[in-house]
Amino acid sequence: MSTVKANAVTGVTTNNNLALTGNGTGVVTIGDGSLKFPDADGNAAAVIGTNGSAQLSFLDAIASASSNTNLSLSGNGTGGVKVSDYFVQTKGSDIASATSLTLGKDGNFFDVTGTTTITSIATQGIGSNIILHFDGILTFTHHSTDLILPGAANITTAVGDIAVMYEYASGDWRCVNYSKASGISAFTNVDQTWAGAQRPTVTALTSSSNAMAINFDDSNDFSHTLTENTTLSAPTGTQVAGQSGSIFITQHSSSPKTLAFNAEYLSAGGTDPVITATNSAKDRIDYVIRADGVIEITSVLALA
């Protein structure tokens, strides 16, 4: 090894660079001779890093010095970190829906598979921003602190829906945007203008032992073709004030039957409708739920 003992080394010619190069395959070392510098240029804007074995080289990517630790980028003083080019987030592996959803550490964008109701999301680190793409239909459950959803209401996801989430406290997430694949608003507590026709499913009712009951959780509209004298029994399901709809009744084709009403169904003047006793006649019973156990009905009879 050649040794130069001096407090300073300068180029021989004024305004010329001072070049330090190794001989042959040798490299330039500094200090005790173990730290080796690259002897060729890297890509534009590359930085110098070590491989952990005293070899310095030009790098196009920066990683945290210790395994499983965060890489922190900070500006000087009041300066921030500015990204001058487009920013690409990594897509992590798919995650299965669960009551408490656990996110991966391999990205910020995740496909959520399955149909299990989600009530919370495990911590990813305060300040985390993630994107969830739902691959199935499930209930995304609002919570006042753990999982804050727009409109403070649960969301039933559809395939292709996307939620943008922000962790504002440890294990506490806020949905800052929810995009429905259908393009329709996800929320029922805001005014909406419908650009297309809206229609409920007409659920067919069946009678047994001269009785049938409506489950108001099934639909708003119902239909039934009489096969026996029948009583419309006390309904099942949730009775929410304001729900309304119609019950389409078709009379028996050759032997007209009767239809009676449970006391929860209230008619004008206290007199129940008497359906048309003609073969295959078509009647309609319209209803509005005033309160649980109070269902107001009117009838349109002998439609032809």
Could you give a quick summary of the protein structure above?
The protein is mainly β and 304 residues long. Helix content is 0%, strand content 32%.
Tell me about this structure.
The protein has 304 residues and is an all-beta fold. The chain folds into 3 domains: 29-59, no CATH class; 95-179, no CATH class; 202-303, Jelly Rolls (Sandwich), CATH 2.60.120. Helix content is 0%, strand content 32%. It has no helices and 23 strands. It has strands at residues 29-30, 35-36, 47-50, 56-59, 95-96, 100-101, 109-113, 120-121, 129-134, 139-140, 147-148, 155-156, 162-169, 172-179, 202-204, 211-212, 221-225, 230-232, 244-250, 259-261, 265-266, 282-291, 294-303. The strands form 7 sheets. A 6-stranded mixed beta sheet has the order 5-7-9-13-14-11, with no helix packed on it. A 6-stranded mixed beta sheet has the order 15-17-19-22-23-21, with no helix packed on it. A hairpin with a 4-residue loop joins β1 and β2. The protein is rod-shaped and about 120 Å long. The mean pLDDT is 88.
Record the SSE blueprint.
Elements: E1 29-30, E2 35-36, E3 47-50, E4 56-59, E5 95-96, E6 100-101, E7 109-113, E8 120-121, E9 129-134, E10 139-140, E11 147-148, E12 155-156, E13 162-169, E14 172-179, E15 202-204, E16 211-212, E17 221-225, E18 230-232, E19 244-250, E20 259-261, E21 265-266, E22 282-291, E23 294-303
Parallel strand pairs: 5-7, 6-8, 7-9, 11-14, 15-17, 16-18, 17-19, 18-20, 21-23
Antiparallel strand pairs: 1-2, 3-4, 9-13, 10-12, 13-14, 19-22, 22-23
